[in-house]
Write a structure and sequence with these properties.
- By secondary structure, this protein is of the alpha+beta class.
- The chain has one domain.
- It has five helices and six strands.
- Strand 3 and strand 4 form a beta hairpin.
- The protein starts with 13 loop residues before the first helix and ends with a helix.
């Protein structure tokens, strides 16, 4: 190609170069800031929750949370509870008597209380401050009962980490993002 056919390169001054670089840097930083704001908005619109249909009560909720005491707690879905005299979420397996002594209870922290309603019905309530989210009671209730005990992330305690450490450690991918407007999944509203 001859020198006369080549397009002429426009020389820019050092000042123009710095101005152009500054403009591009500003636009890139503006785009990054907008992305961060949109990202935070998106995170606030969704929260972590445990899908009770996928949860295997592996015990990782009690040990993997970034909080000293896990934000995962056992909740009791009274609408499907049988109010059983022999609750497999309350009593440890192999008990000969339905004695409420600590040695007969399945919960290692005594977070479940049992109250007589009328023969043969008993009400079981969870003391969330004592619950560590180990899932032992949920495992017993699911295996031999109707599954009215479930693990759920309590959002008044949860930090709603973008990358939840429990979700990363969950062997069955039971941690899911759900809309913040309806943050709890139960067996009833999850099965439909």
């Amino acid at each position: 190609m001859s020198a006369s056919l080549r397009p002429e390169k426009k020389k820019i001054s050092r000042l123009e170069f710095l101005k152009n670089t500054g403009r591009w840097a500003f636009l890139l930083s503006l785009g990054a800031a907008a992305g961060a704001v949109l990202g935070r908005t998106k995170i606030k619109d969704a929260v972590w929750q445990i899908d009770p249909a996928k949860c295997t009560q592996c015990g990782k909720c009690a040990t993997e949370c970034v909080l000293r005491v896990s934000a995962v707690k056992c909740v009791h879905n009274f609408s499907i509870c049988g109010y059983c005299n022999l609750c497999f979420g309350y009593f440890a397996p192999g008990q000969r008597e339905l004695n409420t002594g600590a040695e007969n209870q399945l919960c290692p922290t005594g977070a479940i209380s049992r109250k007589f309603v009328e023969e043969p019905y008993y009400e079981y309530t969870i003391k969330e401050k004592l619950c560590v989210g180990c899932g032992k009671c949920v495992k017993g209730c699911t295996a031999f009962g109707n599954g009215s005990l479930q693990l759920q992330v309590r959002h008044d305690r949860c930090k709603n980490c973008n990358e939840c450490t429990i979700a990363k450690a969950c062997p069955n991918s039971a941690f899911v993002r759900v809309p913040a407007s309806s943050p709890y999944l139960t067996k009833e509203n999850n099965e439909s």
